[in-house]
Predict the 3D structure of the following.
Amino acid sequence: KAGVTQTPRYLIKTRGQQVTLSCSPISGHRSVSWYQQTPGQGLQFLFEYFSETQRNKGNFPGRFSGRQFSNSRSEMNVSTLELGDSALYLCASRITDTQYFGPGTRLTVL
Amino acid sequence: GDSVTQMEGPVTLSEEAFLTINCTYTATGYPSLFWYVQYPGEGLQLLLKATKADDKGSNKGFEATYRKETTSFHLEKGSVQVSDSAVYFCALSPAANDYKLSFGAGTTVTVRA
């Protein structure tokens, strides 16, 4: 089975722009979660989607949003980018209680 | 809230040495516990997991036992290889129907030949 895929792998944006990241889960997995990884804050949970509905949300500002499509693919959007949004954004798809992660999208905000 | 504390690194070992990374957790209820590994430039790979007290997870020579009495899930490997050099994360998933992972800070392990 193919693993979790994320596109793009690398992205460079400037402050004030917005960005959309994409995630395709493992076939048959209906849950997708997003995490932010930074050297200072470590790994932090952003949100989880299941069957196109947001089930859980972390403590991030409203500039961070997401959605899930009927084929379980998910997108994450960050509006009005700030320098502090530079991070590795990881997507994970879940079966039962176990999450499997993609390679991540490295976002750099200049 | 739920939290995970793992030993700070970095840890540097020689090949064939014994590795232990300590992990303790705070959670209400009965969480599932995980170890993930991250190689440079990659995402997280699931290394092993345990879902209830006294369960032992194992994979690729790594082991960890879910100890409810000490709220711990220490990772061990008897003989490390250079290829085990990576960052290791301990994580918990709170309970049924709440799958948000809480991670430890990560422990960087370097194995020298």
Observations:
- Chain B touches chain A at residues 32, 34, 36, 42-46, 49, 51, 89, 91, 93, 96, 98-106 (CB under 8 Å).
